[in-house]
Amino acid sequence: MTRSDRLSVTTNTAFFSHRSFTKMKSIMQTANVAANDLIFLEGDPMDKLFIVLKGKVVLSKLNEEGKVLVFHYFFTNDLFGEFNPLQKHESAFTARAVEDSVIGVFHQDDFETLIRENGEVGLNFTQWQSHMRRFTQYKLRDLTFHGKNGALAATLLRAANTFGVLNHGRLTITKKFTNSELAELVGTSRETVNRLLSSFKKKEMITYTDGNIEVLDVKGLKDLCRCEECPTAICRL
User: Fold this and answer.
1) Three state DSSP letters for the chain
2) What is the mean pLDDT of the chain?
3) HTH crp-type domain: which residues (predicted)?
4) Distance (Å, rounded) from C-alpha 25 to C-alpha 11?
5) Helix 179-186 crosses helix 147-163 at what angle (to 10 degrees)?
6) Cα angle value 11/228/167 (rounded, 5°)
7) What confidence tier does 197 reach under pLDDT thresholds 50, 70, 90?
8) Domains in the chain, CATH or no CATH each
9) Taking a C-beta distance cutoff of 8 angstroms, is the pair 39, 33 a contact?
């Protein structure tokens, strides 16, 4: 996927200065990850951070019924993962490469040393952590506060911000999502997504062109999820 496939989405490392990024890359190792291979599993010890150098990664979690709930997509120059310097920490998520990817790896000991030696990196890292907490909080708000209607509406808006292009006044989501993929993003069944999409189409909020979803009524979708007008750095997949 090229950057032109997305509509004004900011990478989550925009907080890091060029100097910080250069210093981080000096301690980075790289790994090639094939499509559908796992980077880490829910429950694995978390003592690393990762950055997508090429490709695409999805972060997911299993619910109590064993169904997959997709939380985030990560693209080139997006940072993901976490570690706790005070105690051993297990991952709450599973990370999987969606396509053949190149991943940068930062080991916790190396990164902590870098932070101690460079205040700017430490400040930028704190800003990134704050951003990711807000990112996750708004995702949880979308999934839990306004029913499945609101959750799907918010997901379509996020998808439009992430993969959308404007064409003759229409906002087309260039990635062709299956209803099963949308169900994993919303945390519901494929049948529920089928029903809700049909309802949205009847209300002329969306339509389909060559298998792609086109958003016709952005305001209508925003009303369903009670949109708080988050910046696209937050309102993305």
Assistant:
1) CCHHHCCCCCCCCCCCCHHHHHHHHCCCEEEEECCCCEEECCCCECEEEEEEEECCEEEEEECCCCCEEEEEEECCCCEEEEECCCCCCECCCEEEECCCEEEEEEEHHHHHHHHHHCHHHHHHHHHHHHHHHHHHHHHHHHHHCCHHHHHHHHHHHHHHHHHEEEECCEEEECCCCCHHHHHHHHCCCHHHHHHHHHHHHHCCCEEEECCEEEECCHHHHHHHHCCCCCCCCCCCC
2) 91
3) 146-219
4) 16
5) 110
6) 60
7) very high
8) 10-117 (2.60.120.10), 147-234 (1.10.10.10)
9) yes
Residue 184: the pLDDT is 96
Tens digits of residue pLDDT in 14-42:
999 999 999 999 999 999 999 999 999 99
d(CA 229, CA 43): 34
CA dist 236 and 159 (Å) reads 6
* Burial class of 233 by CB neighbour count within 10 A (0 to 12, 13 to 18, 19+): middle
Q: How many residues does the chain have?
A: 237
User: Which residues, 6 or more positions from 168, have their beta carbon under 8 angstroms from its beta carbon?
Assistant: none
Edge-to-edge strand order for the sheet containing 164-167?
Answer: 164-167, 170-173, 212-215, 206-209
For 205, the token pair is 């909020």
Query: Which pTM value belongs to this model?
Result: 0.91
Residue in this structure with the two tokens 């706790």, named with its chain if needed: 84
- The answer on pLDDT for 105 being more than 90 is yes
Closest to 131 (Cα-Cα) out of 234, 40, 18, 58: 234
Query: Which one, of 29, 194, 202, lies nearest residue 103 by Cα?
Result: 29
